[in-house]
Every structure is written in structure tokens, then in C-alpha cells.
Predict the 3D structure of the following.
Amino acid sequence: MSADRGLELKFEQEVERYNYFDSLTNLPNKHYFYQVIEDRFGDDLPPGDAAVLFINIFKLQRINESYGYEAGDELLKMIAQKIQSCLPPEGLLARFDGDKFVILLNDEAYDSAENEAVALARQIHHELTKKIHLGNQKIQVAATIGISSGTSTLHNLIELLQDAHTAMQRINGLSTDRTLVYKPEIKSRAQSILKLETELGVAIDNRELEVYYQPIINLASGTLIGFEALSRWNHPERGAVSPAEFIPLAEESGLILPMGRWCMTTACQQLSEWIKKYPEAGALMINVNVSNMQITQDDVMAVARDALRHSGLEGHHLKLEITESSLVENADQARDILLDLKSLGLQLAIDDFGTGYSSLSYLHRFPIDTLKIDRSFIMDMNRNEDSQKLVHIISNLATTLGLDLVAEGIEQQEQLLILRQLGCHAGQGFLIAPPLPASEAENFIAGGHNSR
Ligand code: C2E
Ligand code: MG
Ligand code: MG
């Protein structure tokens, strides 16, 4: 072979590498993947079952923002190796975009490609729970995996890829299960979510979202302790959309992450301004709800740290409200995250306490400051002795564990009186005030609220 031909070949190989392989991980890329599918299945052979796994890694963007792109790249390489180590010989792994990987499984020996894929997904999740050393940091990443399976015809495989992607996007942030196998009904749900997602996606930019503030008072003295920040969506056609409707959808679509960031930033900024304007109200707290998905899939630590830094608010003015389920479902990971959060000097509350899990052992394990008794107990406390007993028990529990107690949903004077007798020190509810737009909440501070 002449030197020129040798060079040409080398050039061709390089171009091929460039076009078909990802230079960072050395894995095949999207184009290679489609090419292989076409070559292998172009004539609809070999027959049998195939499955596609669509893997989405989270946290990467926050890692890029916090530690820089070099660290993000390093982490991606290690993640790719971890996934590869789980791959059976017949599997094809490709890196699609940034934090997305795809696996094709196809072998005539399979009884069920779907079962193979589910088992592989389990193994990948397990591998990813092991912490990765990045410089002197130990980082734990997690993934959601959508799976689809069917007969391996060319047409079908392209569809399988789309279906696996749809399933991956549909994985609910509230679920512990981070793998979802595609079913046709997922698609219609996905379409309506997509519409809402598109609308919600621009809602922040269009200033359709607003933070309302519900006062929390000291039940004995009536003085204002702080506010709970509650999001509102003023939809251009539908009017006010309740958080009960849009928060679950924001969680499903992943939009809860930018929304949560926005809410935390806005609320900290607002309280910081109020404290400057009303120094006499200097001890006020702002409570911000943190969704399960923010704990498991986002760097809530960086979000809180940035919100405090940008607003100039000191950590002890911020309290994060977390539900029991996010602690119990991901106990080890949650404990590490909560300890990190506490290092910012902020406080942590369990929201809707009493509705989730019967095991209380987690209360010892997590660095919690406050229990918020769920509204359902307060609601029928004056009619139902069992509810009142339960509130009494929760109050004793809080005292024993040295935790603050806040009652939610106080609507009647009688409920407030019972709560005072039971030693519950703080509360919020329509009797005191509903969630208010910032200007009205400010009147609440300016008026030096002190009543009841
Ligand atoms: P939550 O955190 O338990 O908030 C208390 C809910 O009870 C609020 O509903 C509040 O308006 C309502 N409430 C307060 N006092 C009373 C009362 O006396 N009677 C009755 N019937 N209800 C009362 P809202 O604002 O509709 O929020 C519902 C849930 O949505 C919240 O429950 C919280 O879990 C979630 N949420 C709201 N905003 C956000 C947010 O920005 N981020 C996250 N992650 N979740 C949010
Ligand atoms: Mg709350
Ligand atoms: Mg609540």
C-alpha cells in the first residue's frame, strides 16, 4: 500500500470515528446506533424480541455548574464505564446526547427481551448507587430508565426507541421506581402532559407563576413567625391553576426542578427585602416546599446555597419543608443531603406529618427541626376524639424529640384553642390568613400582626 493510500485510510478511519463515535466516552453515538440498526435489521433479520433502554442521568447539569465542565466530563466518562460494565456481550450501548445513553438488546436466545432489559436496568441502577470519586468529592448520581420491547423489525426498532424515550420522560418523580416499561396508555397521558409542560415551561418566563405567602403565627402570643411560600399559576386562559393540579405535573415532567429553583430564589429574595424594610420583624422565617424529585434528582444544596447567596438572606431565616415520603424512600441519600443542607444553617421541617409512614424511626435519623401536623388531623379535631388524641400524641412526640410543632389548616377558633392547650406552639390556616400575594403579606408585617 502506498503512503498516500495509507494516509487516506487513516483519514477515512478518523472521519468515521469522528462521525460515529463520541470523543469523550469513546462510545458509539446516535448515528452509529441508527446505522447498526439499519445494517442489522434492514431486511428484518434476525427475528425475535428486542428491547431498548433509554437512560437519563440526572444532576449532571448542576455538577457542570458547580464544579465546571471538566469535572462534568470526567464524571460522564466514569458513568459510561459503569453502564458498560453491566452490559451483556450482545448489547449495544451508545451515548445519545449529553446525559442520555441508549442500549439495544437483541438476541435470539432471549425468552423475553423485556425481562432481560428490566434486569439490566436494575443492575445499572445498583451500579450507579455506588459513589464516584471526583477529585476530593464523592458524588452519587442516579438515572431514570425507560424501556420498550417488541419484535425486531427495522420500523419497529425506531418506534421502540421513541417509546423507550417516552417511558423515560414519564417516570414520576414521586415514585421510587426509576424504571418504567412502555405501555400504549403512557402515550396519551404523555401528550396531555406535553401540552401542559410546554405551557408551564414558559410560565416562569411569562411571569405567570407567582409566589403567595401564608402567615405562620405563634399560637400563644399571636405574633407573626414567618410565611410559607406557596406557588400559584395564573394561566392566561384557565385562570388560577391550583398547585394541587400543576405541582404533580411539574414533578412528572421534571419542570419542578426549575420551578423549585425559581420559588426558592423568589421567596428568599422577598424575605430579605422585608427584613431590610422592617428590621423590627427581623426574626421572620420563610418556609419553602421542596419536592421529592428535588431531593432525589437535583442539587437542592446548590439551589438553597445560591438562593441564600443571591438574596443575602442568612441561613437561619430559611426552612425547607420536605415530605415524609422523600425521606423514607431514599433514606441514605436523603440523610446525606439533609446533613449537607443543615451545614448552610437552615432549618428542616417534615410537611403533612402523620399522613405518610407509621415508622417513626426516621425522625431520629434525620436532622429535623420541625413537624408540621397535617391539615386532616386539625380539620376534624373538634369533632373527632381520635384526631385530637393523635394531635396530642404528635405534640408529646415533638416535645420528647425537641422538635417545633406547627399546625396546618386552622380554620376555626375552637381548633386554635385546642391546639394551644395541647402545647402546639405555631400554626397557619384560613382563620389567621390564606396564602396572600406579596403586597398583602407585606401589610401583615407592616401591621405588626398580633392578635388572637
Ligand atoms: P402544603 O405544603 O401542605 O401547603 C399547605 C396547603 O394548605 C396550601 O395549599 C394552603 O393554601 C392550604 N391551606 C392553608 N391553610 C388552610 C386552611 O385553613 N384550610 C384549607 N382547606 N387549606 C389550607 P396550596 O397552596 O393549594 O398547595 C398545595 C400543596 O402544593 C402544598 O401543600 C405543597 O405541597 C404544594 N406546593 C405549593 N407550592 C409549592 C412549591 O412551590 N413547590 C413545591 N414543591 N410544592 C408546592
Ligand atoms: Mg408545605
Ligand atoms: Mg402541608
